[in-house]
Write a structure and sequence with these properties.
binds nicotinamide-adenine-dinucleotide; ten-stranded mixed beta sheet; alpha/beta; 11 helices; about 350 residues; about 40% helix; two-stranded antiparallel sheet
Length: about 350
């Protein structure tokens, strides 16, 4: 039976990337039935909101969605669709793998990090107010429940994916209560995995330095929301930048797979943008759906096309368009051995 998935093409470069990713995933050996629903700028006039209720209903019904980037209008009174989706659907874990791609010229080779970012609280809760006309305050909320939940997610992920170490990242030396609670929660969960997954912690500033000096020493990192946001972009930079950085937002009931990058409006409709991040987000979805062999096939075909370097987009040093890049991957998949699942 075909796997039903919600597909949200998104704004800007989103639709062309979504088309490319859909063609590649359809060639993965797994049958998909895509329910295409629009969100973002294109639906504002019709529904008065960039995130109509039927889009949320579609994700709730199908439980899994592949999503292109959505433009967040600055200062127009609309909350980010991305933040709203995460909060409304309870997508508490943001998973961002950062793995070196052969053939892609970067400062480092052999980077293989997984960033697990808490998605629901911390300074990202956006609780701010003016104390006086000249002083503003933002409230940082950290709870034991959310911290233990994300720590458990990181350890479970490590076990399920054969990873050997989890590093908790914090600033508990200064924020003794909030980050202290986060660290304490991670330590508590780590006890359940003693002997199975190694555990350590790093202060966030030191972590940033370590990642640019010796990223190969790290494996799975677990972080509160804000540090997770920053460190995951740092990790993306280590392996080739936004065009190749996939992501997933995972909750107890549903999961939304999306690239780290935004809608890059200046390239919209030009068949220029790199579909790698959305395709790799699709591979993450395949794994999440229990099809590791199909995910591996997609990742291998993509890596081979990049390593060959002939039919890749401008940002990877080529002159192929989005669709030609996808054609090259689909052709490779057609000749690769069939996936078992
Ligand atoms: P962006 O990621 O859209 O673009 C920054 C630059 O990165 C682009 O100008 C381009 O040079 C490059 N780039 C990004 N993706 C690329 C790709 N696939 N191929 C080739 N080059 C690529 O960031 P921005 O300009 O800060 O944001 C644009 C809009 O996207 C904003 O409205 C922002 O709110 C939104 N956004 C959405 C998401 C999301 O939907 N999850 C995430 C980030 C930003």
């Amino acid at each position: 039976m075909a796997q039903r998935v919600t597909l949200i093409p998104g704004d800007g470069i989103g639709p062309e990337l979504a088309e490319a990713a859909r063609r590649v995933l359809d060639a993965s050996g797994i049958a998909f039935e895509w329910e295409v629903v629009d969100a973002g700028e294109a639906v504002m006039a019709e529904y008065g909101t960039p995130l109509p209720e039927h889009v949320l209903e579609s994700i709730r019904r199908n439980r899994f969605a592949l999503k292109g980037p959505i433009t967040t209008p600055i200062g127009e009174g609309f909350r980010s669709v991305n933040v709203t989706l995460r909060q409304t659907l309870g997508l508490y874990a943001n998973l961002r793998p950062a793995r070196s791609i052969e053939g892609l010229e970067t400062r480092y080779q052999g980077v293989d990090l997984v960033i697990v970012r808490e998605n629901t609280e911390d300074l990202y809760a956006g609780i701010e107010h003016m104390v006086t006309p000249d002083a503003a305050e933002s409230i940082k909320i950290i709870t034991r429940a959310a911290s233990e939940r994300i720590a458990r997610f990181a350890f479970d992920y490590a076990v399920a994916n054969g990873r050997h170490k989890v590093t908790a990242v914090h600033k508990a030396n200064i924020m003794k209560l909030t980050d202290g609670l986060f660290l304490d929660s991670c330590r508590h969960v780590a006890e359940d995995f003693a002997g199975q997954v190694e555990f350590e912690d790093r202060i966030v500033d030191n972590m940033c330095m370590q990642l640019v000096q010796k990223p190969e020493l790290y494996d799975v990192l677990v972080l509160p929301n804000l540090y997770g946001d920053i460190v995951s972009d740092l990790a993306a930079g280590l392996v080739g930048g936004l065009g190749v950085a996939p992501g997933a937002n995972i909750g107890a009931e549903s999961a939304v797979f999306e690239p780290v990058h935004g809608s890059a409006p200046k390239y919209a409709g030009q068949n220029k943008a790199n579909p790698t991040a959305l395709i790799l987000s699709g591979a993450l979805m395949l794994r999440h759906l229990g099809h590791p062999a199909a995910a591996e096939r997609v990742e291998t075909a993509l890596r081979e096309v990049i390593a060959e370097g002939r039919r890749v987009t401008y940002d990877l040093g080529g002159d192929a368009g989005t669709s030609e890049f996808a054609d090259a991957i689909v052709e490779r998949l057609a000749t690769a051995p069939a996936a078992a699942g």
